[in-house]
Each structure stands twice: as structure tokens, then as C-alpha cells.
Amino acid sequence: MGKIRQVEQIICEINRIHQEFSADYFETGRVEKLNLSRTISNISHEHIYNYRLNLHESINDYLMGAEIEIKYFYRVKTRESIDDKIGRYKTGENQYPVNNWLNDIFGARIVLTADELENVRLRLEEWQDEFCLKNWYFREKEGYRGLHVYFKNKSNFYFPWELQIWDEKDVRTNIESHERLKRRFV
Q1: Bigger pLDDT: 166 or 186?
Q2: I need a labelling partner for 123 at 20 to 30 A (CA). Which of 91, 113, 142, 184 fits?
């Protein structure tokens, strides 16, 4: 299987798992559904923490059944990292919808060559509707470079998930950037 087909496969599987987990979590009536297109002053922190904890405890059950043939890494955002992000967005002059900035409680990462990454970038628009992609952008900031792809499943009640796609030549500097900027709470 070609690398671009493997990337399509992981995008398909993350979308499927996002949809399944979100439906299992939010559509059973056990959890209050809150509209995440509202600002953080309208969303309880406990709602976010409970989602994160449930995801952390169950994500491997969902991933074990996934059809993924490409090497990937994933993490569930820590509560400390969530608190850090809430602190930064809560105090801003402009208030943004929670689902615009708390879009990476689940994050996966893959590494490609520059040519493969460019081919994927060119295919994202084609995959947008099929795989319920919210948006994507290439981030280049403070030594970090990567393509970020977000999954939403067209629901303002589901927390978006993220897939980062890195060029293999940026792995070391991206890790260093994450250590410097994303782990301040440690």
C-alpha cells in the first residue's frame, strides 16, 4: 500500500473513531451535551475534564480495532495542559468558541517525506467531506513546522481531534519546540 493511501487510511480511521467515541460518549444521555461553539465562560471545566478522562481511559479500546498500516503516535492531552490552554484563552480580549481552540484533546502524529506531505496537503480538500475534516493549516512558529488537520464530525457538541503531519526533516526541531513551549506546566 502506498504512503498516501496509508495517510488516507489513518485519516479515515481517526474520523471513524472520533465519530464512534463521540457518539458513545455524548449520544447516550448519560452526559450533558454542551454547544462547544460557545466561549469558555459558558462551558464548565468539569465537562472538559470528564471528557478528557473518559477518552484517556478508553482510547486504546477504540484504536485496537482500527485499520491503520502507517506508524503513528498519539496522546490524550493532560489536565495540566488543558488548564494551561484554558488560562490562555479565558483571559484574552477576544473570546473564541471552545471548539476553535480546544481542538486537540486527542492528537495523533505521523511523519512523512516532504513530497508525501505535499501530496497529502493537496488531497485534503478532496477528503474534507468524506472524512468530516473541520479544517487544516500549515503551522510554522518558533522552530515548529507541521500540517495540522482537525476532525469535527459536523457537530458543535463533539470536541475536535487533531492529526499533525510532520516532515521527517523537522522531527528533532519540532520535539525541541514542544519541549520548550508546550510543557511549561511541568
Answers
A1: 166
A2: 142
